[in-house]
Amino acid sequence: MSEGKTKSRFMSTKGARSVMTAFIGFVALFIIFSVLSSNFRTPANVQNLLRQIAPILIIGLGQGFVLLTGNIDLSIGSVVGMVCMTAGTLMTKGTNPLLAILLALSMGLLVGVLNGILVAKFKLPAFIGTLGTMTLARGIAQLVNNNRNTDFIGTEAQWFRDSFYYGDILKVYNAFWIGLILLTVFYFILSKTKYGRHVYAVGSNINAARLSGVKTDNIILSTYVVSSFCASMTGLMLLASAGMGTMDAGGSYEMYAVAACVIGGISTLGGSGILLGVLPGAAIWGILQNGLHFVGAPVALRNIVIGIIVILAVLLDIVRGPALSKKG
Amino acid sequence: MSDYLVEMKQINKAFSGVKALEDVDFNLKPGEVMALLGENGAGKSTLMKILSGVINRDSGTVKVFGKEVGDLNTKEAQKMGISIIHQELNMCPDLTIAENIFLGNEIVNKGLIDRNEMNQKTREFLGRLGLEIDPEILVGDLSVSVQQLVEIAKALSFDAKVVIMDEPTSALTSAEIERLFNIIQDMKDNGCGVVYISHRLEELAHITDRVTILRDGKFVIEGEFSDFTLDRIITNMVGREITEQFPRDPGVRQDIIFSVKNLSNGKRVKDVSFDLYAGEVLGIAGLMGAGRTETTRCIFGVEHLESGDIYLEGKKLSINGPSDAIAEGIVLIPEDRKKDGLATELSINDNLALPNLDLVSNKFGVINQNKEKNLVDSAIKNFNVKLASKADNASSLSGGNQQKIVIGKWLSRESKVIIFDEPTRGIDVGSKVEIYNLINELKKQGVGVLVVSSEMPEVMGISDRIIVMCDGKVTGEYLHDEATEDKIMADATAFEIKK
Lengths: 328, 499
Description:
The complex is a heterodimer of chains A (328) and B (499).
Chain A lengths: L8 H4 L3 H21 L6 H26 L7 H17 L4 H25 L4 H18 L14 H9 L1 E2 L2 E2 H19 L1 H11 L1 H6 L4 H27 L10 H11 L14 H17 L4 H22 L8
Antiparallel strand pairs in A: 1-2
Helix pairs in contact in A: 2-13, 3-8, 3-11, 3-12, 3-13, 4-5, 4-6, 4-11, 5-6, 5-11, 7-8, 7-11, 8-9, 9-11, 12-13, 12-14, 13-14
Chain B lengths: L5 E10 L2 E11 L4 E5 L6 H8 L7 E6 L2 E3 L4 H7 L1 E4 L11 H5 L6 E2 L2 E2 L1 H14 L15 H13 L5 E5 L7 H16 L3 E5 L3 H7 L2 E6 L2 E7 L5 H9 L17 E9 L7 E6 L3 E6 L5 H8 L7 E6 L2 E3 L4 H7 L1 E4 L3 H5 L6 H6 L3 H4 L8 H14 L16 H10 L8 E5 L7 H16 L3 E5 L3 H7 L2 E6 L2 E7 L5 H8 L7
Parallel strand pairs in B: 3-10, 3-11, 6-9, 9-10, 15-20, 15-21, 18-19, 19-20
Antiparallel strand pairs in B: 1-2, 1-4, 4-5, 7-8, 11-12, 13-14, 13-16, 16-17, 21-22
Helix pairs in contact in B: 4-5
């Protein structure tokens, strides 16, 4: 019954070590790139780097919810594209930007509800169910503007572009602020509320959770809605950034999201890891893209490096995992 | 040659600093059954895992057939003739019986699997156990007791000289147990040594030659079984006198608190009706597969009910899931701890708090940490759970303490009906008595207690009234004083002859 009061409450939570490891990794990469490239270490690039991290951070938060229940959401990359194209198309056709945002957002959420019903009620394997909606959502992204990217979304939408991406507060771009706010809110929900505990319980042992009175179907469905909300926010962010809707926006983002989670210590088996890890996870993804660009590495090399980092992060988790418990 | 098949001396083993075995000695002679006894966490399984190469010792010597051996892996141990039947079933449900039995030792002909030969041999092995089933049936389609027999057949397939059986009978029917004992007798006659681990002390008399008792990872005593009485074994296991194996407080039966009428689920549960009184312990006896567990799961809303009604305090309930049942004040402590009871990779704290989060959170669902701490601490204290830190994973606890968590997490709520499904399966004598005392305490508080148990002495010892089930139906009912083992057994096997 000795709960060390000396140890901070955060560090005593499980998964905190993975978050710290990822954070230290990020700092190390930051120092390495700063030494290697004088263009990297400029204040403007650091601002820029934080902004680049934002979309992966946000979509990673949603994927984190789903992974914690032991499921996966493959559809989110396509939802990014679908929301981006839908909002973009509506704006270019003269719809009020706010209305366009809300309509596109609801479409995104609808995909989340559909995923949730397929996985929770109809017991489809998450991988298969969301593979289907992934293709479906990408199809809608292509359909909404007759298989063309949209034109420039126009000056009435300038406020939208500023508030979602280009504006800044205290020299930090809004995109990153949005990510931080969502991170804080979601982290609070997962760590301090009944709902959050239920999410972990479902991921750890769904039978025991159900027999303890957890409405497991509702929990799983809700995580898919959170995930599609995050993907929709990411889609809007990419639209704000580019100023036009592109059909392949968000391609492979579902996998980048998994990568950010896994680097940050969220297990794909469910039930373990903390959402804060997505921040250093996404940051490592971002700094590799950004930093390798500044040291002149080709795109192919960046992908190879990121792939290796993901594998290392999981290996590290597996190697140090079982040594902790297990009794005969 | 030495007189012993196995000699283990001064064995030490620690898991992350915690000593599981301390200077333990153990030996086994040819042609004998050595019972290895002790409470949960005493180190029995750890010792046998060392012998069979599943884990390595920290120090100590092991001699097999008189020859000193270093650290073995499981394959080497098998080659030397050491075979182990694990407590938990270790089989691949999607492979056939034959594929499971020959897993890792497949019979190969010109580089290809010889399926016919494997099936033929499997038939022989199963035949020795009196099982006549197709070796190509998938293991996942078998009942638990047949799975356990297959596991035993697998151990026999190695031509082992030393066979370790860790709780081999926990899922077997009495006829199957008898067959197993005959096989053990055969093995003895052939000069094999058998190490037998069991919590069912009544069984031992039929087969045991010698006993070794461990307690808290230390060697306590070894001797001829005939020199021991049951009481002496228990005293050595727990290190204290246990006055009563089944403490029961007759109590006062009050009004009917809970009734089920004509429950059917279209499968194992067929037209089940009974009443439960406040302040009463109602036992449900029967054989494996009699539909007892399914009945409790239907009441709790885990399984779908086809027809029938459930009444609590005279009010008809509509239960669509466990959360509805809990809200009404009905809770179920499930039979399968690992599958249904615990989230083993969550902390002890989170497991204890899980069903009670509504009691410690505000209307927005935000958890009050002080309230949660109080609730969890008092659950741990009231039930005397032995743990290092409540932040540790539930998997770090011994079986008996895990079961205390599974039960203890429900005691912070004011429940009206508490259903225990096999509450003491596979746990040690000391913890069992603590659970019986708790049941008495609940009874005193006026709770209606339903206990499903396959252990006849237990269900007869603790129940105020017993109903017997067979083939999904209630076939008998007795008050505590009327019940005898013969009557219950007759009802439990009262199968209707199918036309």
